[in-house]
Amino acid sequence: MGLASKYGLHPLDDKITRRIFGVNLKIMKKIILAFLCLSFLNSCSNKEVENRLIIEKKSLESEIEKLEVRNKIYETKIAILKDSIQILKFSAPDRLFQIKKMIVKKDYSGALKKIELLKQTFPLSKETLLAKQDEEFINKKIAEKKAREERLKALGFKVFKDNYTGSVGNVSFAFSKFRFHRKFYFDYCPDVEEEYCTTSDKNNLYFLATLELSSKDNYASFPNLGLYTIEDGKLKNISYIKHEYASWSSYGAKLGNYSDNSHSFSKVDKIRYKIAGEITKDETKKPLFFLTKKKGYPGDGLTVEDVKKDYIVIKVVNRNKI
To answer: What is the reported pLDDT for 322?
Structure first.
C-alpha cells in the first residue's frame, strides 16, 4: 500500500508524498542529532563547573583553617598581653609592701610565694634585692620553728635512763668505754702486741664501745643493736653497728691455725667485743639513742611507746640537747 492510500491521498500524489516524508525524516534526524550534541555539550559544561566549584570550596576551607589558627594565636597573644598589663599594674614597690605585711602577720609561706613572683617579674629591681634579705629572715624563722617543734616532740624520750647492763634472751650484756673516734681498734693479739684498725671517712666518726657478753648456755646470740637520732618526733636509725672480737689468745689463733677457746660460750662464760657505728660529725652533736631490741631486729621510725615496749635503752648521748 502506498503512502497516498495509507493517508487517504490520491494515488497520483504518492510519489510527491514519499518525497515530502523523506525530507521531513532527514530534518528530524538532524534536529535529534543537534539536540543530542547540545545535551552532551551542556553535560560537559556542568561537569567543569562542578569541578571548579569543588576546587574553590577546598580552597576556601583551607583559608578558613588558616584564619582559625591565626585567630587562636592572636587570642593567646592578647591574653598574654592582658596578663602582662595586670602584672605591671602591680609594681615592685607594691609587691614588696605586701610581702612586708605578710611577714608581720607571720604568713611566711605566703610571703615566700610573693618573693618568688617578685624575683621572676622584676629580677633586677632594688625591691628584689631587699626581698632576698626578707627571704633569708623567713627561712631562719621557719628553721627555728621546726627546731622548737622537734624539741617538744623529743621531750618524751627524756624519760629513758641509761642501762649499761642488762639481758636479752639467754645472754647478759655489760657496755663500757663509750666514745667517738676516727679509729676502730680490735682483734688484739697479746703475743705479738698487734691489733687491727680501721679508719672512718674524713667527715665521719665512729661511735665506739666495749661490750662483754656472758651466758651460762653453750650458745647465745649476739644482741641486735641500733644507733638512733630524733627526727620529726621519732627515732631514726642512722648507723649499722658492727662488732668484732676485742682480742685473741694468740696471733696463730687469729690466723686460724688453731681454735680460740675464748670465743666460744661452750668453753667460757664471758666474751669481750668491740663495737662501732660510723656516723657524720654533725650527727655526733645531736641527741643519740643506743638501743638493743628485746626480740628480733631493730626497727625504724620508733615512737616513745615502741621503745618502752620492745627496746632497752643502753645509752643516751647528748641528753642535754633533747
So the answer is: 84
